[in-house]
Amino acid sequence: MSKEFWKAGNMVYPLPAVMVSVGGESYKPNIITIGWTGTICTNPAMVYISVRPERYSYDIIKETGEFVINLTTENLVKAVDYCGVKSGRDIDKFKEMNLTAVTGNQITAPYIKECPVNIECKVEQILKLGSHDMFIAKVLGVHVDKKYMNERGKFELNKANPIVYSHGEYYGIGKLLGTFGYSIRRKNQKMGDTNNTQKERTLINKKEVNKTERNKKDNNKKEINKNKRNNIKNSISTKNKNIPNRKK
User: Fold this and answer.
1) What confidence tens digit (pLDDT) does each residue in 152-171 have?
2) Which of 32, 163, 178, 226 could be 182's S-S partner, Cβ–Cβ 3.0 to 4.6 Å?
3) How far apart are CA 129 and CA 51, in angstroms?
4) What is the pTM of this model?
């Protein structure tokens, strides 16, 4: 396989194509499309977005310290592109794209009702990196569309047909290729079978519990045997003390 070597550049693709909504008491609601975004910590839940300082939304985010990451779908792809090439200085993107701005629960920045997931974020730190500044933010709460909840209470985002961005193009995510841990899953377990996965976890937990119980029993037996041996030793020692000395 032959390869070419290129100069340094951003080649980590595909990326999530999200619409970030901003606003506040002194600012009208606005939307900016972002590709440079992602998760950076699980506990506490933290994310980032990188924004060029010349973008209209940059100052709003910097001054309010708030924004919402709205996940996007195939039905919203036109709005995703539009909000990335048009400026909020000139137009009302919510109005132009027929989107609904809803005030957040924990922040004043609005979220987009039509998106399946809305992540409310509070800026913790701003890193000046060059062409972009990175806003590191703590997740304060998440809104999810109830229609993508299944009968077992699991949120199925894939049914919303999310999209990704790759080298200037938008794509659907395609067919399911695997689920987390499928490479080491039992051969008779179907891919994506949540019930089997749960059964497997339950079985593992039972094995762990049984192992712990066995260890406890073994330790108790050892302790009992040890006490018996000590009692025998003490008994023998006491008897020897009570035997009178005999002259040869």
Assistant:
1) 999 999 999 999 999 999 99
2) 178
3) 10
4) 0.76
